[in-house]
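G., before I forget:
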Amino acid sequence: METFPHLFEPIRLGEVTVRNRIVSTAHMTFFVSNNLPTDRLREYYRARARGGTGLIVIEPVSVHPSNVASGHLLKAHDDSAIPWLKSLGDAIHEFGATAMIELTHGGANGMYTIEAVVGAPSAVPIENARYMPRELETSEIQSIVRGFAQAATFAKKASLDGVILHGGNGNLIQQFLSPFSNRREDIYGGSAENRLRFVSEVLCAVREAVGEEFPIGLRIPGDEFLSGGLTLDDTKWIAQRLQTGLDFLDINCGNYSSYVGWSLGVAPMSVPLGPTVYLASAIRESVRIPVITVGRINDPVQAEQIIADGHADMVGMTRALVCDPDLPEKARQGRIEEIRTCVACCAGCVGREERGQAMGCIQNPITGHEAEWTTIQPAQQPASVMVVGGGPGGMEAAWAASLRGHKVTLYEKADALGGQIPIAALAPNRDEFGDVVRNLTQQLKGTNVCVRLGVDVSSRDVLAESPEAVILATGSVPYVPAVPGIENPNVVTDWDILTSKVAASELCVVLDGDASERSCSVAEFLLAKGKQVVLATRAYHVGINLNKRDKPLTLLRLLDRGLISYAHTWIKEVRPGEVVLEDTLSGIETVFKDATLVLAIGGKANDHLYRELVALEGLHSRILRVGDCLAPRTAEHAIYEGFKAGISI
Amino acid sequence: MPLSTEGLDVLVCIKQVPDVTEMKIDPETHTLLREGVPSIVNPFDEHAVEAAVRIREALGGKVTVISMGPPQAEEALRQCLQMGADEAFLISDRALVGSDTIATSYCLSRAIATIGKCDLILCGQQAIDGDTAQVGPGIAENLSLPQVTCVSSIEVQDNRKKAIVRREIEGGYEVVECSLPAVFTVTKSINSPRPPATEIRGRQVRRLGVLDINCDPERIGLKGSKTWVMDMFPPKPNRRGVNAIESTLPAAERIRLLISGGLRERKGDILTGCSLEQVAAQWVNHLANWGLSRVGTP
Amino acid sequence: MSIFVDYTKCTTCGICGRVCPFGAVAKREDGRPVIGDTCTLCGACENACPTKAIVIDRQDAQVDLSCYRDVWVFVEQRDGEIKRVSLEMLGEGKRLADKLGQKLTAVIVGCEVSHLGPLVGQYGADTAYILQSKHLASYTTDGYSNAITGLITTRRPSVFLFGATSTGRDLAPRVATRVGTGITADCTELDVDRNGQLVQTRPAFGGNIMASILCPNTRPQIATVRPGVMKALSPDPSRACRIESWDIKIDPRMVRTKIIETVKLASAFRDLTEANTIVAGGIGVGNADNWILIERLAKALGASIGATRKVVDAGWQPHELQIGQTGKTVSPQLYVACGISGAIQHEIGIREAAKVIAINNDPNAPIFKIADLGIVGDLCEIVPALVQALEER
């Protein structure tokens, strides 16, 4: 059995002992309404504490009214915060985890509303925001310093175990530290010493407010990855200067000022595992206090090696815990194959927040619904359930139905489970996505679900079986638009290309439908094979619907390889060997000779079985559809719907 | 000194060491921070004491523990008494200061000769501050006794003249018969040491100086040490497994290196369409050119 | 030898007390340091003192050591097969001997081991001393220490290196004590200083600090050397060495230990992160039955075995052998990737391999980009050919 002696060794942060080295670092969940936590947030933290996480850092809490924020950000501007801070702490303490909170002020990262103007160290434009901030006055700065101290006392009074000053993710403290965003000419700007002044004052004020023993940590980026911003040499110096007043450091990376910097702060799938461990490692060498490293640390073996090799004292495994809150317990018991590993798709967690929705996880429908779904009650009467389709939707549905105690059979017409995911995983930098199937397969192992591969279920089969319920997860096939000449041989689908069923010509025109992963993946695949690739999209630009962590890096890779993009463009017609595009705004046509048209538009529901069943006389089974066969979308929807369908029986 | 007449007289050599897992390097001066690090019984020696006590429990006899060290090492010996040892001796003397393993082995063997003949001498495989594993064999040589190192189990034959032991070697173990008296150094897999829970009840740690054990002054302390530490410096950090990026590079390049994982194209020879003979020849040539000898077991 | 604090330079900063590994510095009432009895003259305080107030006076005793010459390496063998650490020490020994302007001698002890004489010559030895007896077929402390000590006293080497193996760590201290000379354990670095002394560097205090050690007054300077750190030379088949061979008379009554049984433990999972050579198989191996090819190649190379995530998922191999995804990174001298396409996480896991050889059917497999030698073809045909080539050498 693999053991993780370093990972599960307790550690002292200030006066507090944390039971192991696993940290869930502070992250917004949008389980917050009108700046107050909801039960959903409490249950979310409770589940992570129960699953064995050592230190849970409650999401960022605003310390001062000048922080212009949406209703999704917790606010601790007065002592009415103490009761709800305590309730969050209690939920975490109930199962023995350590509870701390991150104190923040967004500065220039605030929301731009008609009511208020965001304040920052300097009026410097940033990529991620639309309007200029205003320069903060000295009196405001000092008021904000007092705000940090005040919020820290609320945390202490609420029996939380410590506070972390948020000097990362491009927030106000980082804006003061960074020469990019701080161009002030007073005592708070100019030299490195002056730029350090703000956070020094905050630290001093907080320390005075909470006393010597209460743990105070600081999050800073080891490297802003920003031209003109902080580099590792700068942050080593900052760490050394501040260490006497601090109990620990939390080292991440990136910034809010640039797209790429923002992306690296929550690095997506295309970035290698543990890419910023070296930053924490270098800082740890120069300071005497414990250091947390965070970023694409996915599993206990990796985490153990990081600590054993001396790169960090604790590891942030935030997304890994979003996906599987029981990861620590499973690791402790040596059941590592049972861990549902995060694939860093960023779609369900930060992706949903970007769309203004509450956080979730594409692989774990229970995340955010802990109260309702952590324990699924078995049904009064176990029923027979047929699940047709062994893609993510069907696999999840089968598992969920088995939780209810039903007798489930899962049918898949191919000789392997997975649906479209193995195809999607063939694209460059998407190999890790295939882990979703691996995790779903592992999930089924613990059940009595009977899996029948190579079986193409017909409506007659269903009638013969006559199950209580049949869940259809028959997926989709690539969508082919009705366009003149579409039946020509130089038209292929993205599946054909990824599975190497066809050879494409030297010039490929990829036609995109949803400005998202589908077309970018196949375009990257073709570019890696040395083809010349034109990516045509109806959207205002290529990849516009990718989530913000994926977008800059995907575009970077595509442009590096020489992608030619045509925006607000659609297919006009196809002629033998030729592809004709039309700009949807100007009407201008472009003809590509000797080109293959690769359709990456989306899916068309594979729902003929559904239609047959619905029309079938004598069938009394309940019929449910999940995923693409209902409406072609993504794996996220398939899994979510599969789960809900399975437990609804 | 009176010896027991039945059972086995086992003598265990122990050392008090700093808890090296608590030690850190001062990042500013790059030197070892010794302050505040607790002192413990060398973990391997705890296993040796346990082994000795178990032999006494099975066959009768006496367990004596000795240590060469400064006065505070008495605490470690007391702990051994609390594990069940019968007698304890601390050999402590200013003249012993600065001893290397040669001088230490000599001193301990003089002490053992003074204390009385014993049937078996046990040591921990190595001390965690020095990690040399040299003192056990050194004692054996000084006393002209046979030795077996890396011992993971001991079975004393009834006639007290022989023992059958397991000796751990790379990839497995040997079963070795050794005549007694002998010196064995033990590994951690030999047993699980009991906590120091027995009451000492009147047993004291007895102090011996160099005059008590008849040491040649030329062979102890700094004078008797053949090796000297000339320099101490921090180890180079283990950079394995971490793609460190030079911070003086421009941001765009740092980003590229970060997302590519620091992989570098190696541009090696790619053999396509070759016969098996050609492939085999290239294989052997490349290995030879790279100095990668296949010869030799690890 | 003495240590001296110049109080006119001392600023009572206290750094000396903090850095002393032996707790030998006490503070007087006026804040000044006093060096106590436990001082070993290691020099940590001397180095750390910012005003150079601490001085260690190292007067070397005058001893004529000039009749001790040459670097000796104890060549460890088992069943007539040489241990790799011995080849590494020959490589390092040659470098040291050259620096000293002296010769390298290999000392081979065993039974029916004369074939190793020419071999050590190829790996750098100028001379091979072969000591044989049927009582030396297996290692025993008494047998080997008797044989070697006699040779030391008559031939007088300046340096004698042993591998820090279970044998070396049993034998070397015994020999050093008998001869009355200094010994340093588990060296990770060796060098010759300008006085011709062997500088022996090794980790101490659990690896928290490195210590450099000299054996200035006695000979030979004995050290055990950590396996896998030094570099063996490329064997030169044209290189011959002078061989002296003795049949040693051993009185079996002098050998007080007897090996009753030797038990090999079924492939204990050697820690992949420490492995020197790794043969890894990917899903391209085809099926669980074909895995025997990986095992054969690994055996022929003396390598550890690794597997990709897909192979572990397929149930062909246990999780402990997995490299790459789940972050196990390896840094071997040689990594042979069989049937592995080269997903990025696996590539990163092997990024620090010194040399990578890849065998794959697909010429476009990404792994070929990071291979130092790539072989395109069916591994079911290629691997046996490679094994055969190794066995024939």
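Chain B has a mean pLDDT of 88. Chain B touches chain A at residues 24, 26-27, 237-245, 247-248, 250-252, 254-255, 258-261 (CB under 8 Å).

More on Monday.
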